[in-house]
Records
---
Amino acid sequence: MSAETTDVLVIGSGFGGAIPAYYLAAGGARVTVLERGPRLAAADFTHSMQLGTYNRIVDVIRGDGVAVVAGNCVGGGSVVYFAASLRAPAFVFERRGGLGRRIWPAALTRAALDPWYDRVEEAIPVTRTGWSDVSYAGGVLAAACARAGHTCNPVPLAVDTERCTNCNWMLSGCRFDAKRSMLLNYLPAAEAHGATIRPVHEVQTLGPSLIPGYRYAATYTVLDPDDYSCTLQSGTVHAKVVVLAAGAVGTPVILQRSALLLGGIPAAVGRYFSGNGDRVSFADVDESKVRSVLGLSRPDGVPYEGLPIGRPITAATYDYLDATAPEYSRFMLQQIYFPSVTNVLAQAVDPPHWFGIPGRDLRSRWTSWLTLLAMTEDDNEGTFGAVLPLTGSFTRLAPGLGLGTMTYRPTARTRGGWAKADAALRAILEKDGLARVRPWSEDVAGSVTAHPISSVRMGDSPGSSALTDTNELRGHPGLFVTDGSAVPTSLTVNPSLTIAALAERATPAITDRAEQAGVTVRYGAPLPLP
């Protein structure tokens, strides 16, 4: 087994890993990034749902009561997300949840995070879209909202709208480099300053280093890029500082597997897991009512049939993000498009189901669906089990499919939030028979989320949080967690921008800790502007 050293080891290359990797490298540190997925560039993204293509970079991880869709490649979730980039409302940072007291660290408020949001929005950068950027599906939602007495707005996106072709293949990466993933900003900037990025390197454990001057040792396996279930070799990296950003499913498992080596980990590791309150529904739209009720029609005379046309997320209503409303009653409703492969997860709560002639007829009308995502306030009720997979963060069943150790049992408060979102959707879209709203059933895959967060969360109380307010793991100086697992609560908006802003905010503390460990490094590099 080979051994090597680095100043700063970054585990994961999504929003949480790429950002500190850049600043530490630009500040003069030796930075090594280990990423369990492969490295692909624009020309490598196939924009296909054939097996062997999208499932190289996307994993569906099934737990007990929840299924998680996660990125698996250099750039992480930033390569496969739908680029909606929103700041969390101020009330989110004041949430009390089931604890009955403030969950977020006292030092973190919306106002405190705004300067870091500013930095991310400029570096990525985020586009303030207009109605000309909204898809036809988004326009149908907007028209339905207006008719029901609600507002609807274009969603800010991390997309170059001049370069975007509206091909709607965001889940499979962007062949046109229009989606502003970490592949286009922080990661190339980190490499320009000497950082080394190693794909298909899966970290297994963290423990103390026996090399003088180094604090941590990370063991890893190198995966076969053509078969992730096969290991080609293994090794160890010794580092003075570690930034753990393996995702909200990966990070807690690495820490749990490392608990004995590290001399114990905080009790909150692997607890308080959240799916960001995600609640997916589809509305079976009556084409004739799109014309007669909304007065809409495409140039060719077809009223709608627009589900797959345009970008996956373009419009949303923020009317239910009322800071004065009780907790668990606040949510955002967002138009979204999922590739047809996800229909396997999308059995509706109400009949007809996918079997039989009624189910076939329902599926045949899929272009007339309108898919909606509600992001609600959940109860952080998910946990990760003590029985760990033999390697990695989940048991790989097939390419792109895994069995995780997380358990999710929605509380009455969480279900109450979902019910309010369902009712709001029905009031908007079922008015005058425009559509029938069908929430996804939990019978097939449990709750489904592409926004896993909170499994190693920040906070002020050691009893209910694993990290300090600077993202450092309690009791383990120089070990930081900067991915979605650090986010304390569901956000009622897409979490990517908040994850990135928190990583920006954590970087000065990481730099300070690296200096204390003897690394010659300074914080203050300019933004990695494209």
---
Amino acid sequence: MTAPKTASARAGEDGELTHRQILVILAGLMSAMFLASLDQTIVSTAIRTIADDLQGLDAQAWVTTAYLMTSTISTPLYGKLSDIYGRKPFFIIGIVIFVFGSLLCTLADSMYTLAVYRGIQGLGAGALMSLALAIIGDIIPPRDRAKYQGYMLAVFASSSVIGPVVGGFFAGVDSILGIDGWRWIFLLNVPIGALALTMVVLTLNVKNVRVDHRVDWAGAATIVVGLVPLLLVAEQGRTWGWGSPAALACYFIGLAGIGLFLIVEARAGDEALIPLRLFRDRTFAIVTAGGVIVGMAMFGGMMTLPLYMQIVHGADPMESGLMMLPLVAGMMGASIVTGQLISRTGRIREFPIIGTAITALGLFLLWTIDADTSLALVMFFMLIMGIGLGNCMQPLTLIVQNAVSPREIGVATASATFFRQLGGTIGVAVFLSILFSRVGGSITEELGKATADGSLARGIQDGLSDPALRQDPQAFGIVEALADPATGAGALESITKDSSVINRLPALIAHPFEQGFALSMSEIYLVAGLIAVVATVVLAFLPPIVLRTGSAQAEAAREAAAAAAPTGTDVEAAEAATTHDHTDGADVSTTVTGEPGQEDPATTTRATSAETGR
């Protein structure tokens, strides 16, 4: 009689990792996730200062969409390559490219060169989050993932607190060691990236069950041809004109590229960058569609909130970042509660549906704000929006990973991330286009109201007689331009390029500009709220979902071992075992039916026990 096996021994034999092994791997993953999430919070906090310094606030969309575009397009390629060759080498490549792009960003001399460098940075970022989520999906069973969710949330919480403080500090300093303060935001990624790289090299030792596929380079090329022109026209359509020759050319090239991508992927079959057969699974198809829509609403709603805080409420970059904490707190709190409920009950379908509905409510509440809305009320609306997002983001990733074969965790996670980021990229481009196409008319309308009630005239009189204001040529120039209606349009154009001057104007003059920006942003929240409602309706069609109780890595290893086992001996043993079972009157079946990831754990346990007894 053999002694019972210890938990660690069983973990080693069945492919499941021990708690200690998982924590070691998580340490490396969290260092890279911290690098990516810290960069996002720092840059979003300081982007207004950067844009004002480079005289290009109206070109901000280029910087934002360039990063999202390259990270989005590279994400499925990283997922496929990591399924074939392993996660670790491409995780390392992603960190190196990200740090290199950060160094280039410090050299930017205009918003357009910064956009190019942020695009290079995005090529690395495409690996960081998607592969981290894929590795977590590899090593932790979906039902147990909530136990470790606190560690991952700690990364986002710390970056959400540290990012605004650090970003605000550097954005508020003119120069350090002869280098512009905001450029240190990107230089900071170098030591953090070096630490993350070291941690990943030392800790990320995850076994990879190789998928014998070729790399779908044709799919990667056609997806670039399809998406880049469409994203470009989404960002530039307001400038070119939606029916201009340049816009029409982008429509044609983009649609042709997407059509060619579908043809290439259909021919590639299982080796496709994004295997089209995955969409035959109802769960995967619905979650993917919902992810695109949620991405549009989420990014579209979130990216204007720091601008609102800074332009309308006069917050500096550090303050505006800290004002985002209710949104972060809502996301974290809801995510923790959701994770624990999923772990205890195994139920997951309801959470993204409820989450998108709450997100829509938060966005509709934000639609009601203007320049005079209480800051506390705005932050309460942000909290509601954060609670909604916290209920849907992690469950959507879990559902996708649970719906596919364990060997396709990488491509499935990357595909889900890709489509969510694609929605976000489209949302940012379209919503910033709405903002800057509407803000001019809104400001003009508000200036007209201020003229009618006499407040603008009083503000102009105060400004012209203020000796201190004369020391600020930009602000005093706007007051002089408003005093002369013939040249007033120049003031409007100046403010859409450098909004920092608004906070230096007399209150009676600043208010129409603040209200113009606030009302233009509120329209974005209305559109984003309607999009979130659509996401709720789409996700309501999700079928019932049963979460796996085994990790993808362990299941993939068992599948590979079963496929590689000698067939002759196994057949004879199986026949003898079946005869023995029937003789004893016990019919033990190891067949598992149903959708991938929906096995009956009890059936599997009984089958394994019977085999061990024999």
---
Amino acid sequence: MSAAPPVVTAAELGVDDEERPARVLSGFPGRLVGVVALGLALLSVWQVFRPLAQGSQYYLVIFLAVALPLVYLSYRSWWGPLDRADGPSVLDWVLAGVTLVVCLYPVLPIGIGDAGGGYDAFLDRQGMLAPLDVVMGGLLLVLVLEACRRTTGVILPVVCLVFLGYGYYGGLLPQDWSIAHAGLDIDQIVDALYNSGSGFYGTPLDVAASYIVLFTLYGAVLEFSGAARFFVDLSVSLFRRSKSAAGRTAVASGFLLGTVSGSGTATAVSTGAVTWPILRKAGYRPEQAGGMLAAAGVGAILSPPTLGVAAFIVAEYLDVSYVTVLGWALIPTLLYYLGILLSVEIDARRFHADGRAPADPADGPLPTPWWKLLGRFGYHFSSLIVIVVLLLVGMSATRAVVYATALALLLAIPDRMLRSTSATDEGKSHSPVGADLTKTSAGQGITESTGNTNADRGSASKADGPRWSRKSVGQFVIEALRSLSYGMRSALPVVAVCAAAGVITAMTTKTGLGAQLASLLVKAGSVLSDDPAVVLATTAVLAAIALSLLGLAVPVTASFVIGWVIIGPALLDLHVAAPAAAMFVFYFSVLSEVTPPTALAAVGAAAVTGAKAMPTMWHALRYALPAFLVPLMFVLTDSGQHLLGRGAVLDVLWVSAAACVGVAALAAATGGWLFGIGAIGPIARVIAAAAGLTLLYPNPVATGIGLGLLVVAAVAGLVERANRTSTDTP
């Protein structure tokens, strides 16, 4: 059997949905960051069961005071001679120390003239900050923006500066402009950011510290337990005989791994390391395979039960439970993967009909049958089931994920035992494609095996079975704690983004910019017609374009926050239901991850397959294109809410069925293949595209017209095939 393919990780490529690559820390800095990150992780868990008596904002102050200095120690400054790749520089240590003091300043019980004095005294000065308060708040602003620059790049800090400039200089705008305002002075800006619930310590950071960190810890523990490896192995075994097995395996791996990842780029890179050799063998070009992996990976941000970061913010903004948001996401997620799977099937028929399945007997021993894998390691699904069950019975999302994390830690024990015994009993004859999926240690550039390494499995095969000694138990405990620490470190970029997002929300709230821009968007939508339906459709299209363009520059989380405070009110003013408007903004914020020219998931997948980045992005866009139009269904009519699972069962079923047919029609148009007909030409593709667009308007009349157009497309395809046959016949 061939050797395992090389594993490429997100950290090694330096890309992720929300982050740049972090340093590889060793020695004292590595131990310090690891211990502090573990302590912060445990504090986050403690807060779930024993909240700090001073309140949630006090907890956020402590949380940011610990997390933000870790960013300066873990991430490079990229400032030439002041920068170090192998560890923190003197400047980084200084910035970390200053950050700690500035963040803790509101809670330090030390009086300094008319400033200081502890947390209660700090809150009492809201709206009347002391000069030292303003200095500290200004320093924290600079430090937050710098931390954001280090972890995500320069674009988001620049966007924050634009909002700050608008807040300060808004009074200089012509007063007949709708976006003009009186202007804010420095004290007012710092007060809004530093001493209110809408700035640094607003909803985005609250969500990061209360929800996102816990789900990130859960994902890290799941990978440590061997669950991620099992999901990929299961996908490989499921489709070992079909002609389109290679593509199906890549998509299924992305879906299964995405249920626990919540990161599009990391999912694409991790699954690509295992499935790229399979895709290459089946005849996929590097760009095409990379596009498929990127599209499937981005679905991780849409896949329950661990949706992307913005989903938690949706729950907070709308004041609903997280399980409610999961319910809204279920059908659209299935539609997203339906579009990709249909595109895969079309590609298999058009380009890869002669490609061999990944388990072709000519390539060596077959992988372990799926039913054996499921019987042996299927318990890895139990923690996912536990989360859903606990949410359904009314438990909070924070407690549910903590219990699921504890269960995943326990399941790591039988995983190691079973993999050791399976290595003894079977050797390598049934090893799924010989690949070992690895996890990145929170973007730290360190790669750890999820389960045993190849060397470990080799040594285990020589033993009579698993041996648990005091030393091995101690090592297991250390690795478990290390996974928690790595999980916390992987959340640092999200913490920086959420703190920076507070700048945007504070300035938007303080100046009333959101309402003004929403009004402008609605006015632009009414240019074509005064008909409410036309105004809504035009506004929705303009909003979709704006969100797609916004997502090119900033991470998904920031894109959603900006989109919600600006585009959300415009949709609400047009009487779109709040859930539909929020999910519309959420989905287009996510889908920007596959939009050229800055599709990070495609960049990561291209690095795995050795493809050129830009062609890979266009292939990713082709695979995901049908899904781009599905969110429009949420807002165009009241019936669109049925796609979120809201309404009567029959209504949900017919709208979902129409959406499925619409996605299939769009996949046929983009892929040039109609099932039952075969390859179709330009005319049939245009008609199929029109049918798909019509079917995505959730209205019974539009559905009937769309089905009729699809029949016309099929007839046109038959005519084109007949013409090709007559032309080819001598």
